[in-house]
Amino acid sequence: MACEEVLHSRPLFLTIYTVVIIGIVFSSLYVFSAIRYPSTNPSSWSLSNEDVHLTEQTLNGSRLATGHAVPSVPPEARNVRTRPILDVPPRNKAMPPFEAFRLTKELIKKRVKDNIIIVTFGNYAFMDFILTWVQQLNDLEVSNYLVGAMDTKLLEALYWKGIPVFDMGSHMSIEDVGWGSPTFHKMGREKVILINLILPLGYELLMCDTDMVWLKNPLPYLARYPGADVLTSSDQVVPTVVDDSLEIWQEVGAAYNIGIFHWRPTESAKILAKEWKELLLADDKIWDQNGFNDLVHRQLGPSVDEDSGLVYAYDGNLKLGILPSSIFCSGHTYFVQAMYQQLRLEPYAVHTTFQYAGTEGKRHRLREAMLFRDPPEYYNPSGGFLSFKPSIPKSLLLSGNHTIQSHFTLVNYQIKQIRTALAIASLLNRTLVVPPLWCRVDRLWFPHPGVLEGSMTRQPFLCPLDHVFEVNVMLKQLPEEEFGPGIDIREYSLLDNPSLPSEVKNSWLDVQLCKEGAQDCFASNNTTIGGVLKFPRHSNEETYMKVFSSFKDVKVIQFSSMQDAFTGFSDKEREDKFRNRVKRYVGIWCCVFDHTPGHIYYDMYWDEKPEWKPLPPQTSADDHPPW
Question: What residues form the membrane-spanning segments (predicted)?
Answer without folding.
Answer: 12-32
